[in-house]
Amino acid sequence: MEEALNYLKKFIHYGDNIVVAVSGGPDSMALLTLVNEIKKNLDIGIICAHVNHNVREESAYEKKFVEEYCDQNHIIFEYMKIENYGDDNFHNEARTKRYHYFEQIVKKYNAHYLLTAHHADDLMETILMRLVRGSTLRGYSGFSKVVPMEGYQIIRPLIQVPKTDIYEYCKKNKIEFVQDKSNDKDIYTRNRFRKYVVPTLRKENPEVEKKFYKFSTLLLEYDHFIDDIVKEKMNDIYKQNVLNIEKFKKEKHIIQLKIIYSLLEQFYQEDLMLLTDKHAELILNLINSDKPNLKIHLPNNVIAKKAYDVFTLEKEREGEKDYEIEMLHYANLPNGHNIQRIASTIENGNDICRLNSKEVKLPLYIRNRKEGDKMMVKGMIGSKKIKEIFIENKITPEEREVWPVVVDAMERIVWLPGLKKSKFDKQNNEKYDIILKYY
Question: Whole-model pTM?
Answer without folding.
Answer: 0.68
